[in-house]
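Section 4.2 – Deliverable D4.2 (structural model, holo form)

The reporting period included a commitment to supply a predicted holo structure for the target in complex with iron/sulfur cluster. Inputs used:
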Amino acid sequence: MKVNPAYSTKASLLELYNKPLLELVFEAATVHRQFHNPREVQMSTLLSIKTGGCPEDCGYCPQAARYHTDVDTHKLMSVESVIEQAKAAKENGSSRLCMGAAWREVRDNRDFDSVVEMVQAVNDMDMEVCCTLGMLNEDQAKRLKNAGLFAYNHNLDTSKDFYKDVISTREYEDRLNTIENARKAGLTVCSGGIIGMGEAIEDRIGLLMSYMEMETPPDSIPINALVAVEGTPMADQKPIEQWELIRMVATTRIAFPKSVVRLSAGRTKMSMEGQALCFLAGASSIFAGEKLLTTPNPEFNEDMEMFKILGLVPKESFADGEKPVTHEDPILKKRKEDEQLRKERLEAAKKEGFEPRKVTVTNA
Ligand code: SF4
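Output (structure tokens):
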């Protein structure tokens, strides 16, 4: 059962969402137990590999270059630094590393080559690798798949109707196309939304309907609560009540019984009791680590304490799908061969008495 046939229309989903809360949670918990081990929670670490300076205008995002926020921009991290971070995440219990780059779209350049190398390295560490890099075409998706990428994240964020109030620099259709490209390449899809951006309840249902209408719904669906950041157009949005997040998690769980529902941004504003209700209602994944790209998140230790109290255990890597095989990337191979050749030629030339020109950089 890819989707729950009892809730495949907007009206039935809306009715479900509006059920008395405890009935909704009970129904979600019942569905959750049929398809998942309720004690297991997948821990993912979200790592910002390229931060800020994004040309897009997503109204919630502090990384958009056009907003004046406190985000420290940094260019693409080195492969070595990513490996260090992945090791630390693994030691802390994360089974998945999600690497996020603040790009509008993937470009076929050296930075993308480096991301391919990062994917290979982290997959070889027996961690599930997910990337969120903006729009991508089918060839780029295939290249990532070939490198060992497990999942591609691309959120629809909200309903098609409300989307234009959140983002104007790209269309809903662009998002759907990228998801389709990831699917065609054989990647698992992670796609979800944000609540608390000023949308109506119908928009939350509209988001779920977009996934209902897909041939295959996302394998994981992150549900975020807006973290309103100073300097963004949504800075003054009133925080949502945790009950709304619990409702959204429960409704998503019932509608998509097999998908992983990820309780994502906004956990710092929730009590442990609120989070416990989300786990009961079918959340089976969280983001671990003190930062979610640029916004705060509970620390590893706090989460481990919560797991102990609630009797939860971290899920093993590749429990929901086989580990992808890392294949050699022809572009990377050629690049490395060219670099090696250049080094050898330089060494040979030096032996012949050639002295490389020294370049002095002076600050103006
Ligand atoms: S959400 Fe992504 S695409 Fe949108 S502004 Fe932020 S980094 Fe750019």
